From TrEMBL:
Residues 34-266 form the ABC transporter domain. It comes from Streptomyces lincolnensis. This is ABC transporter ATP-binding protein. SUPFAM superfamilies: P-loop containing nucleoside triphosphate hydrolases. Keywords: ATP-binding, Nucleotide-binding, Transport. Residues 1-12 have a biased composition (Basic and acidic residues). It holds the Pfam family ABC_tran. GO terms for molecular function: ATP binding; ATP hydrolysis activity. Residues 1-31 are annotated as: Disordered.
């Protein structure tokens, strides 16, 4: 996807004299490490990619930034990292305004955006040595130790001597994470960290993320995969077409939403007919189950109607709502990953 600026990770804008070169603030009264107010980006072509975003990422959370392709996730991340300027609105990262405080903030942030930039002809270890050498605050005397520790953290010690071009996509992602972990970080920002990986690679990256979060680092990761967010995140925000539709603890997002009604029965055909008649929406039949969206009325009456019609009901329950149910309830649309 083309961007307004090149892939340089140099922060834009200088730190003005009014912004002291000190440690970024501790997360602040509201305890958020990322905080945006009406953050908006309109690209030069006129495309409104992010529209009035108010995002709050609590310290210590694993925060999933969820949305179909093209919903504005990468654009938001690039604004947060000071890579592009917002059209309007504001963003604070670690309590400091971005992009103005990029120089002070970014050393505390490990970022993996759009796949790591690697030299294929160098070994995994030497790629990390290069990254570390590019950091003016990194002491060269302890470089080898730092690189070894980062490789160990992501499980690449055994493959450290191999050229990066021989790495699988999953190994490349892990090497990118290792680069982000050369220094202790307060925040990790990962843009679609499992994109393009096979299921095994996805599992590895997800468990690595959980592990990284367990030591208190806040992790902000974007994804277009609902189940991924449900599996690894404590909090999430859901975007669609540049707008935020909801945010909060993952457990709460779906709590106001009714899950699907599921009837287990050998008489699926008859059950489906009765359920439709009773006002159940989106009826789906699988082997020995019929599910659907429950209507807003007494469910016991639906059960009675099934039994009266001679359906042998072996199970009758409303399942716990998933994030997908919440998305559908909030937008009235399916969660279309193809965007
Ligand atoms: N440099 C650019 N110039 C113009 N429009 C852009 C630019 N970059 C992104 N867009 C558009 O802005 C919208 C949001 O894109 P963005 O990449 O932020 O979404 P996303 O949610 O990260 O999706 P993806 O996962 O596909 O990258 C899209 O409609 C996209 O086409």
């Amino acid at each position: 996807m083309p961007y307004e600026h090149d892939e340089s990770r140099e922060p834009m804008g200088d730190t003005p004299a009014t912004e002291p070169e000190s440690e970024p603030d501790s997360p602040g009264v509201d305890d958020s490490v990322i905080h945006t107010r009406a953050l908006t980006k309109r690209y030069r072509g006129g495309q409104l990619a992010v529209d009035g975003l108010d995002l709050t990422v609590p310290a210590g959370s694993v925060f999933g930034f969820l949305g179909p392709n093209g919903s504005g996730k990468t654009t938001t991340i690039r604004m947060l990292m000071g890579l592009i300027e917002p059209t309007s609105g504001s963003a604070r990262v670690l309590g400091r305004p971005m992009p103005r405080s990029a120089r002070t903030v970014l050393p505390h942030v490990g970022a993996l955006i759009e796949g790591p930039a690697l030299y294929g002809f160098l070994s995994g270890r030497d790629n990390l040595v290069r990254y570390d050498a590019a950091d003016p605050t990194a002491d060269p005397r302890t470089r080898r130790t730092r690189v070894a520790a980062a490789l160990d953290r992501v499980g690449l010690t055994a493959a450290a001597g191999k050229k990066a071009k021989a790495y699988s996509l999953g190994m490349k992602q892990r090497l990118g994470l290792a680069a982000a972990l050369l220094q202790p970080r307060r925040l990790l920002v990962l843009d679609e960290p499992t994109n393009g990986l096979d299921p095994q690679g996805m599992r590895e990256i997800r468990s690595l993320i959980r592990e990284l979060a367990s030591d208190g680092t806040t992790v902000f990761l974007s994804s277009h995969l609902l189940d991924e967010i449900e599996q690894v995140c404590t909090h999430a925000a859901v975007m669609t077409q540049g707008r935020l539709i909801t945010q909060g603890p993952v457990a709460d997002l779906a709590s106001g939403v009714r899950g699907r009604l599921a009837v287990t029965t050998p008489d699926t055909g008859e059950a489906a007919r009765v359920l439709k008649e009773q006002g159940v929406g989106d009826v789906v039949v699988t082997e020995d189950r019929v599910t659907g969206e429950p209507p807003d009325r007494e469910l016991a009456d639906i059960n009675t109607a099934l039994v009266t019609a001679g359906v042998r009901v072996r199970g009758f329950a409303v399942e716990r709502a998933t994030l997908e149910d919440a998305f559908v309830a909030l937008t009235g649309e399916g969660f279309d990953v193809a965007g």
